[in-house]
Amino acid sequence: MTSPTTSAGLRVALIQLAYDDSETVPERTARVVDLVRAQRGHDLVVLPELWPMGGFDYRAWPDKAEATDGPVVKALAEAAQDAGVLLHGGSIVERPADELGPEGKGLWNTSVVLSADGALASTYRKIHRFGFAGGEPLLMEAGADLVLIELPNGSHAALSTCYDLRFPELYRAQIDQGATVFLIPAAWPMARIEHWRLLLRARAIEDQALVIACNTAGTHAGTEMGGRSAVIAPSGEVLAEAGTGEEVLSVQIPAGLVESARESFPVLSDRRL
Questions:
Q1: Are residues 191 and 250 in contact, defined by beta-carbon separation less than 8 angstroms?
Q2: Is 130 or 1 the better-scoring residue by pLDDT?
Q3: How far apart are CA 25 and CA 106, in angstroms?
Q4: Cα–Cα distance between 59 and 138 in angstroms, integer?
Q5: CATH number at residue 41
Q6: Which UniProt keywords apply (predicted)?
Q7: In a domain, 209, yes or no
Q8: Which range marks the domain in which residue 234 is found?
């Protein structure tokens, strides 16, 4: 396991976006980039999962899919540059121009991270697909790669998305690669919101990691979303939590939380399996 280096504090904005079925993708994108530009002064800004295409709007995904150099990501890149922030742009339904994937579906649930100069810094394709026999497993390929990025304070954050949260082995693998922070965009429904709140704390406690999680609000495709975006300390303490409507949650995260937790209570060193 890689030992974390001492990290400075971090100012984070979680944009808990609410939307319904009435907005077009360009209309929603214009609204979102204005919200991103308003977060100048933060180090990191995070958006929810599949906000352009609709997290539960399965039928629309094939028509709304685009590549990671498409209009949504280009607009996010300009907004990140204008605001001078590292932007986790949530995720899009990705359709690459020249790739179908092993199942021949050609669509992925892909997170995008834009640097403060507008460059595409990283992408992550969601590993665990939600929907059982329908939804993501029916329409999308599964990602396969663990992805870590460096945050402005020097710490290393691992990327995951929504349903991934239910699979603790993913987060164990990420801390073994040096992760001290988990960045988790989601479209988690109100019907299971207490699972979301509990699992965020569980991942923080069991991995002694900082959890930064941005969920969706509003109702779309007949599904009410749960909100409750949150920042969780490695101790399981909820440093900040949003309500259930549209909200920008601005959080100043103190320096050294992960290092202190892992040094004062070194439970990870007792792992046997």
A1: no
A2: 130
A3: 20
A4: 11
A5: 3.60.110.10
A6: Hydrolase
A7: yes
A8: 10-252
Residue-by-residue DSSP string for 207-246? HT-EEEEE--BSEETTEEB----EEE-TTS-EEEE--SSS
Verify whether residue 162 is a known catalytic residue.
yes
CA neighbours closer than 13 Å in the CB half-sphere of residue 101? 17
C-alpha distances in angstroms, 155 versus 3, 7, 10, 146, 180?
11, 6, 10, 16, 7
Residue 126 annotated to the active site: yes
- Catalytic pick among 126, 136, 214, 259: 126
**Residue 263: active-site member:** no
Q: How many domains, in total, are found in the chain?
A: 1
∠ CA 9-17-220, nearest 5°, is: 150
Is 264 a domain residue?
Answer: no
- Size (the chain), residues: 273
| In a domain? residue 16 | yes
| Beta carbons of 113 and 89 less than 8 angstroms apart | yes
Identify the active-site residue in 49, 66, 141, 259.
49
For residue 269, tell me if it sits in a domain. Answer: no
State mean pLDDT over 173-195.
98
pLDDT (mean) for 221-247: 98
DSSP 134: S
Instruction: Exactly one of 66, 94, 141, 162 is catalytic; name it.
Output: 162
Range list of H helices, 140-215: 168-176, 193-207
**Which residues are within 8 A (CB) of 114 and not within 5 positions of it... i.e. 6 or more apart?**
73, 76, 77, 80, 81, 86, 87, 89, 120, 121
pLDDT of residue 17 exceeding 90, the answer is yes
Give the predicted TM-score (pTM) of the model: 0.96
CA pseudo-torsion sign 202, 163, 37, 121: positive
